[in-house]
Amino acid sequence: MAVTLGDVARHAGVSLATASRALNGSARTVGDALAARVRASADQLGYLPNAPAQALARASTATVGVLLHDIADPYFGAVARGATDAAADAGLLTMVLNTGGDPETELRCVRMLHAQRVRAIVLAGSGYTDPDATAAIDAALAGYRAEGGAVAAVTDHGGGYDTVLPDNRGGAAALTRALLAAGHRDFAVVAGPGRFRVSAERLAGVREALAERELTLDHEALEESEFSREGGRRATARLLRRGRPGVILAHSDICAVGVLAELRERGIGVPDGIAVAGFDDIPLAADLSPALTTVRMPMRRMGAEAIRLALRTAAEGPSDGVAGAADGGAAGGGAAGGGQADGLVGTGGQRAVRVLTLPVEPVLRATTGHPAAS
């Protein structure tokens, strides 16, 4: 049986990406000692380099790819704007692909971008909770990175990628604490789809803040919804069939628009009848009447920083998947602070992945009975 590049990587104790860079002549070089170790393993195992792979490793286009769930969603529009601006500053074009929040579509998009030899890929949508779907996407990205490509993620996609990490859990907890402090009780939640990691993070933040007051979120007070206006409407209708909460927390602003529409159609006043809050602070949120309480996410910055991380990795060579952490690493800390874990070193002298934690903050407006806020 022919010796593969993966066999060489395992023998040398490095990642597939590092082995490829050492043997295929990529411009994204590795250190002399590490390269010598990889070459020694290749010689010992009798590995024969693949000529087409060597050629691919030396070439890439002046294009970056950005994968997101729905460009029509203002949240993703803002993230994409930040990404395209940062790419343009680097003299690169941006290819934006919609996945519809479907992992199979995302997998096809990764393979398409790989075939197009884009310089870097940014995963701008949420990671998935399905381990099989995640493994398939990770495998496709590993093949892309083995040929010199770079990958960065927005939100948690697992430990193997440089990541821009907005504090989804901390933001949801901070908003819930602020509403509790203002006297709100009897919470209901329109959570995001269970297939997204972001949905679980935001819901965990709500539960955390309620638990601090010895309160719980009853099963009857929780509905899942797509991150869409219509999803928010349908989820609200289901909640109202079971009772009338004091406040509805929608885990995206677009969902919250649907919540408001359903309440308006039923003649229920906001905030006097039911208070409403969203998440993201899309530009529309402040212009609604009444203006929407929400959690402000630095959406443009998230897209821009992800591009910068990816391009930095493209210049240096991808990490070997040893996770580093900034300000506690994973989401779940407070809603303030944030910084970059840069140049961390993993096992065997390998650079760890970079994690840039970005702060978020609650913005209290009229839909929860607060004065107008900017």
TrEMBL record:
PANTHER family membership: LACI-RELATED TRANSCRIPTIONAL REPRESSOR (PTHR30146), LACTOSE OPERON REPRESSOR (PTHR30146:SF153)
Domain HTH lacI-type: 3-58
Keyword terms of this UniProt record: DNA-binding, Transcription, Transcription regulation
GO molecular function: DNA binding
SUPFAM superfamilies in the cross-refs: lambda repressor-like DNA-binding domains, Periplasmic binding protein-like I
Entry's transmembrane regions: none
Name of the protein this chain belongs to: LacI family DNA-binding transcriptional regulator
